[in-house]
């Protein structure tokens, strides 16, 4: 009876059978309840049918839990899906749309091949005004048909096409339309006139005309007048649109014909005017008239918002720079982007789409995803710019909910966490997740892989740099290496990131104090000795070259003075590579390296340029002042050093001011500044400033200043020497120690503490044993002088004789031998020695004075005052000034 459509009779028989089995205490199958419900529904009693369906569904659930009194094992999935779909249809007819939708979805969950459930759910969603979700279900239905029926059927395709056309999803609708054309029988499924009009409204006149023309040509008998009229109308519209397009093309091709764009708008049919306005706006924008372009785009959107119009207007507004916009303007861009998302609904995941059956759908899907990605990016970017990080995070999560694993979405979420939410650890976790997404996209040959990966790589480097700033060096290096590995993959091949990641790794080693590892990386891409590189295709950036210079300079500052030449060479290369010729900081470190290398003239020029770029920087003022001092430009030097102190009363500036005053005959003022420098440098050391001058070095300068002051307290100077010497004995700079000992010995000799003076000067002499010949000879002179002051004439004479063996014409040794002879009252011998001095140095003042004072019989005057020559220490002087070599 059911097969003959006698639903009421069939329902009565099913009900009788159920009652009989229940009376006999026999189990009733789920299928029997389902059949009763279906026949009751078709007979018109929907309310009773829903009760029977509910009974059947209840027993299905009980069977799953082995609690049902009905007979048999679990119901097959196909039968469960059929039951749920039939129940859904009953609720659908009663207007219980939510309940019906839930039942259809349950049917699909029970059996993913339940075509009936898909079809009914799609129809329900159209009725419930959910066209986007309905389209997704239709796509899944077609995909399921293709998988299980070896093809798709025309009815759901026709319904999907009409739905897409009515939703203005033209590109998708065209794809489905071309799929339908492959079916021979379309009558009853497709309204030809309606489809042709929809195609023309989407701007596809050629296809619309071709479609109607074929219908007219292949119609047997009398032609349908409506089709003939439609064809004529479409041809006329096409001609009008083509005329408009010609004017737009002329305006595009020749800026002198820009007025053609206005003519085009005047000629454009009303139905197509909004679309043509977008094209005309592009012409104005290309010709630099951004204001006119914006005006035309706004008018276009007011007539009919289109995806291209919204994209172009939002892009045009953002191009002016977000930093120049107020809140209302930024909000407007977000609003346009949200509107764009509404006009570009999600098509679906690839696994849900009949991509092989609908040729061209894959390209449409990719374009939709690209458009939506641009909109999502813009929304998130503006929210982040405004500092609304929580809302930016929420929007990215919505984006990722529709596109799980989207590379750019995950990259944006990572950026939000480390920049806006200060969640660095979570950002690192997200980078791992994003890397997995990258690997999947690479395997899928994503056509946007390169552009999306570029953003991903930049965020990897930024997070790595943030980790390094937090002194999490190993984690930072791991990320830099990850970026380097990805950038080297053939599908990416990004040489800029490849080199930059290595530069950042090298910088991390530099910060860790591992100069060798830093240098080994950088020298792969830069030749510090101008030899050919093995990897000539990749070169260091400006920042990498600058870093290499810093590495060499740090090594030179640490005692390898010969490396100043390399630092200077590399810094000059950095200047050449900088697009603006280099900033004040670069010229400062270059000038400081030249200064340390003794190139005072060039140092003054480079530091002068740095000063011109940034005259308010105390470090630049300080070192420029030192360079000018070395060149004898004392007045300029003093002004700059005093300016440095005013700008930043720091350790180096205050020390240099004291040094300047001391070396220019103002020991009392110098002592005051040295005392202040001790406090400032001590404070800087405690604050972790490794470049702060050692307190012992300042104490030595303070002691000399006190010593030079006629009213200075000698006891204080001696105490300073003692304290300073205790500290500098632990240094490896033997020359600096010997110089300090020689100065101390001179002071002790001056106050009559001769034994201590001799002891300290002898130690200085021993420390200079490995210095050059000139230094060693002068050390002997200094030691002889101390002995002479101590009254040890024979020992003093021995030292001078040693000098003369090494330098037979040593004027100072001649002079001091004369002093020894004079002290022994060997006046004729003394005259001979002083005469020898003048034979090698006619302008020797001390020898001239001596010859004026003595005769072969003794002194001319009662109180002789023969001057000793060479009473200063014989080592190479350390730099009088401290070079403040910190980076700006």
Distance between the termini: 96 Å
Helix content: over 70%
The biggest sheet, with number of strands, parallel, antiparallel or mixed sense and barrel status, is:
2 strands, antiparallel
Dominant shape = elongated
For the residues shown, what is the average pLDDT? Answer: 89
Q: How much strand content do the residues show? A: under 5%
Radius of gyration: 47 Å
Compute the number of helices: 42
Which regions contain 5 or more consecutive residues with pLDDT less than 50?
A: 870-888
Q: What is the strand arrangement across the widest sheet?
A: 1-2
Number of strands: 2
Structural class by secondary-structure content: mainly alpha
Could you walk me through the main structural features you see in this protein, from its secondary elements to its overall organization?
The structure is a single chain. With 888 residues, this protein is mostly helical. 72% of the residues lie in helices and 0% in strands. The protein contains 42 helices and two strands. The protein has a two-stranded antiparallel ribbon with strand order 1-2. Helix 13 runs antiparallel to helix 14 and helix 28 runs antiparallel to helix 29. 43% of the residues are buried. The C terminus is likely disordered.
């Amino acid at each position: 009876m059911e097969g003959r459509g006698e639903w009421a009779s069939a329902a009565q028989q099913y009900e009788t059978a159920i009652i009989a089995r229940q009376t006999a205490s026999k189990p009733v199958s789920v299928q029997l309840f389902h059949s009763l419900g279906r026949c009751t529904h078709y007979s018109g009693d929907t309310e009773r049918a829903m009760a029977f369906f509910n009974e059947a569904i209840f027993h299905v659930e009980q069977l799953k839990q082995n609690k049902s009194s009905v007979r048999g094992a679990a119901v097959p999935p196909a039968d469960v899906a059929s039951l749920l779909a039939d129940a859904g249809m009953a609720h659908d007819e009663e207007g219980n749309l939510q309940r019906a939708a839930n039942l259809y979805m349950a049917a699909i969950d029970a059996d993913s091949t339940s075509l009936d459930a898909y079809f009914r759910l799609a129809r329900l969603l159209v009725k419930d005004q959910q066209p986007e979700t309905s389209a997704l279900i239709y796509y899944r239905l077609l995909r399921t048909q293709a998988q299980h029926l070896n093809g798709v059927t025309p009815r759901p395709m026709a319904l999907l096409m009409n739905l897409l056309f009515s939703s203005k999803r033209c590109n998708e609708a065209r794809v489905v339309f071309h799929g339908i054309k492959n079916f021979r029988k379309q009558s009853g499924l497709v309204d030809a006139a309606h489809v042709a009009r929809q195609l023309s409204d989407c701007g596809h006149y050629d296809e619309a005309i071709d479609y109607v023309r074929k219908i007219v040509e292949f119609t047997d008998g009398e032609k349908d007048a409506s089709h003939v009229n439609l064809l004529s109308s479409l041809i006329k519209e096409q001609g009008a649109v083509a005329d408009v397009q010609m004017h737009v093309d002329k305006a595009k091709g020749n800026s002198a014909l820009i007025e053609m764009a206005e003519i085009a708008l005047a000629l454009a049919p009303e139905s197509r005017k909004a679309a043509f306005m977008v094209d005309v706006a592009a012409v104005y924008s290309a010709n630099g008239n951004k204001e006119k372009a914006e005006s035309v785009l706004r008018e276009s959107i007011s007539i009919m918002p289109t995806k291209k119009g919204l994209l172009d207007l939002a892009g045009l507004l953002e191009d002016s720079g977000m930093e120049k916009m107020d809140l209302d303007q930024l909000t407007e861009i977000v609003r346009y982007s949200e509107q764009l998302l509404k006009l570009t609904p999600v098509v679906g995941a690839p696994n849900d789409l009949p991509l092989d059956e609908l040729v061209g759908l894959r390209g449409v899907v990719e374009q939709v995803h690209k458009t939506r990605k641009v909109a999502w990016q813009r929304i998130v970017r503006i929210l982040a710019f405004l500092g609304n990080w929580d809302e930016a995070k929420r929007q990215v999560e919505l984006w990722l909910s529709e596109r799980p694993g989207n590379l750019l979405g995950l990259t944006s979420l990572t950026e939000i966490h480390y920049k806006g939410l200060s969640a660095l650890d979570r950002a690192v976790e997200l980078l791992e997740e994003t890397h997995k997404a990258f690997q999947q996209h690479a395997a899928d040959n994503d056509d946007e892989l390169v552009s999306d990966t570029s953003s991903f790589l930049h965020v990897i480097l930024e997070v790595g740099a943030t980790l390094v700033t937090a002194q999490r060096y190993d984690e930072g290096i791991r990320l830099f290496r990850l970026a380097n590995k990805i950038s080297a993959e053939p599908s990416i091949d990004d040489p800029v990131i490849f080199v930059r990641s290595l530069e950042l790794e090298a910088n991390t080693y530099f910060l860790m104090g591992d100069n060798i590892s830093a240098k080994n990386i950088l020298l792969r891409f830069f030749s510090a000795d101008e030899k050919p590189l093995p990897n000539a295709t990749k070169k260091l950036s400006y920042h990498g070259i600058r870093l290499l210079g810093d590495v060499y300079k740090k090594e030179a500052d640490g005692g390898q003075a010969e490396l100043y030449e390399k630092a200077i060479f590399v810094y000059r290369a950095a200047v050449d590579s900088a697009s603006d010729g280099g900033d004040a900081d670069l010229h400062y470190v270059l000038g400081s390296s030249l200064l340390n290398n003794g190139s005072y003239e060039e140092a003054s020029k480079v530091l002068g340029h740095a000063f011109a770029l940034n005259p308010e920087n105390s470090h630049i003022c300080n070192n420029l002042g030192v360079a000018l001092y070395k060149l004898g430009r004392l007045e300029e030097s003093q002004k700059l050093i005093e300016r440095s102190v005013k700008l930043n009363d720091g350790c180096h500036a205050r020390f240099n001011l004291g040094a300047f005053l001391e070396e220019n005959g103002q020991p009392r003022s110098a002592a005051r500044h040295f005392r202040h420098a001790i406090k400032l440098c001590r404070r800087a050391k405690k604050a972790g400033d490794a470049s702060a001058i050692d307190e012992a070095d300042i104490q030595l300068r303070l002691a000399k200043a006190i010593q030079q002051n006629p009213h200075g307290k000698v006891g204080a100077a001696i105490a300073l020497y003692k304290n300073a010497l205790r500290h500098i004995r632990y240094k490896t700079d033997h020359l600096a120690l010997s110089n300090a000992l020689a100065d101390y010995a001179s002071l002790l000799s001056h106050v009559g503490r001769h034994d201590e003076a001799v002891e300290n000067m002898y130690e200085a002499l021993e420390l200079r044993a490995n210095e050059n010949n000139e230094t060693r000879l002068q050390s002997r002179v200094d030691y002889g002088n101390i002995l002479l002051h101590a009254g040890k004439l024979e020992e003093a004479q021995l030292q001078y004789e040693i000098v003369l063996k090494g330098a037979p014409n040593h004027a100072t040794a001649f002079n001091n031998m004369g002093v020894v002879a004079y002290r022994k009252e060997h006046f004729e011998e003394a005259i001979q020695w002083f005469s020898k001095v003048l034979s090698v140095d006619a302008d020797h003042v001390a020898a001239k004075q001596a010859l004026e004072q003595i005769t072969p019989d003794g002194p001319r005057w009662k109180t002789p005052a023969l001057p000793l020559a060479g009473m200063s220490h014989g080592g190479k002087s350390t730099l009088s000034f401290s070079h403040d070599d910190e980076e700006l």
